[in-house]
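B., you asked whether I could sanity-check this one before it goes into the benchmark set. Here's the sequence:
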Amino acid sequence: MDHSDVVEREYQAQAEIGNAALRRLALLQRAQGDLLTFAQITSADVAAPDDLSRSRYQAYRHHSFLASTLMAVEMGLLHRVIISMPPRHGKSELTSRKYIPWSMGRNPRQSIIFGTYNEEFALDFGRDVRSVMTQPVYQQVFPDVRLGTGSAASDRLQTNQGGVIFFVGRGGSVTGRGAHKLVLDDMIKDRDEANSRPMRERTWSWFTDVAMSRLMDTYSAVIIILTRWHEDDVVGRLTDPKNPCYDPELAKQWTVINIPALADEGDILDRKPGEPLWPERFTKQYLEDMRKLNPESFSAIWQGRPSPSEGAFFNASCIHPYRRGDQPSNLRLYGASDLATSAEQRNDKSCFGLAGVDESGDLWILPDIFWRRAQTSIVVEAMLSYFARGPLLWWAEKDQIFRSIEPFLRQRMLESGTYCAIHQLVSTKDKMARAQAIQGRMSMGKVHLPIFAGWYGDAVEELFGFPNALRDDFVDFISLLGRGLNLQNRASARTREASPYADGTFGALKHATRAKERRVVQHQGF
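And here's what the prediction gave me:
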C-alpha cells in the first residue's frame, strides 16, 4: 500500500467520523422538537449505546399518532385529551415516561403533576423519568436543563431553572402545587376497583376537587390515560351524555382518542375492520383468543368499550354462551331482520340472520349473522343467501319492510327462485314491550349466544345497555325472533286445543284445563 492509499483511507475514515458526528448532531437537534425521535435516542440499543441511530424503541403507526397528539398538546393546540389504548401497546411509555421529561426539557420552568392509582406506582414513574433526565444524551438534547441539587427523591424532580415534576398517588395531597400540565395515568387499578361504586366516587372526587383544582390557568393542559373498565369511570362522567355527571359544555373541551386492538368501522388509523393494531406483537389470532376467554374484559381492556357488569332489562343471568360445536344438529331454522335502510335510519346498522330451535325449545342464535351498514342491494342479496338455507319462517317489522325493501326483495326472490315465508309483525314504539318475549326466554336459559362469534362482545354490551343504549340493532333482531316464536307457539296451541270430546263431558273439561295451563306457560315466555 503506497502513501497515497494510506492518505485516502485516512481521509475516508475522518470523513465517516465527521458524517457520523453530523448525523448525531442532527438527531439531537431533531429530538428537541420531535417526541418520537426523543423517545428513540433515550432508549439506547444496549449493543451500541453510543449509536443514536440504533434504538430499542421501535415506533409503529399508533405510536406516531399518539406522539403527534402529545406534540399538539405541547404546542397549545389541545388542552384536554383522553387517550385509551390496549395494554402493552406503549401508551404509558410514550406519554408518562418520555413525554414528561421531553416537555420539561423544552420548558424547564413549568410545573407538571403526574398522578396514578397509588403512591408506589407513582414513584416507579418518578424513578423512570429521573433516569431519562440524568442520561448524558438528555443533556446533549437540552444542554441548559439538568436536575437540581437535592432532586434524588422519586416523588419530586426539580430542574436547575425552577421547574418541578410531582408524582402522586390517587387520593394524595397536591396542596400548594400548581400544574401547567396534569398527566393522569390509570386512576383506576383494575376491574374490582372499577366495579366498586364508592371507589368510583372517591376517584371522581379526587379528580374534580384535588387534581383539576391545581391547574395554573385556562391554558393548562390535562392528559388522561386509562383502561376503560367501567362506563361510569371518569371518562364516562366527562363525555357520556347518559351519565348524570355529564355536562355538554365541558364535554366539548375534551378530545377523546380510543385506538382499539381490533379496528372498528371508521378506524382513526384507517385500518380495515378487524385489523390488529400491532400485529408484530399481538396477532389477530391472539386477540381473538383473548376475546373468547372473557368477552366483557376484552371489550374494556382491548377495545376501550366498557360494558356494564349487570344490565337493567337484560342482566347477566340472561346470557348463556355456547362454544363451537355445542349446538345441536337437528335445529328448526327461523330468521328475522331488523333493517336500517330508510332515510331516517341511515346511521344505524342492519342486523339479521338465522336461529335454530332444538327439541327442547331452546333457541340457538347462529354465529354468521349480518350486522353492519350496507346498501339495499347488498342487504337483499344477503337475505337471499339465508333464505337458501331453508328457514321455516322469517319475521320482520311490518312498517319497516314495506317502507324499505319488500318490492325489491320479492322481485329478487322470483328471479333467483329462492323463497321464504315472510311474516310481518306489527310495529310498536315501546322497545321493552317488543323485547319481553325474548327476555322471558333468556331469563329461563332458553336462548344461547355463540361466544366465539366476532360480534358476541358487542351483542352483550348492547343487551346490558338496553333500553338506554345508543343502538339496539341486535336487541331488535332477537326480539323479532322471540315475538315470532311466541305467535307460532300460540297458533300451534290453538290447533292442538280443538277438543275431541263433546261439550259438558269430563274429557272436555280435562282437555280445556290442560290447554289453559299451556297458555299460561307460553305467556310467561317458556
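One thing to flag: The CA atoms of residues 310 and 316 lie 6 Å apart. Otherwise nothing jumped out at me.
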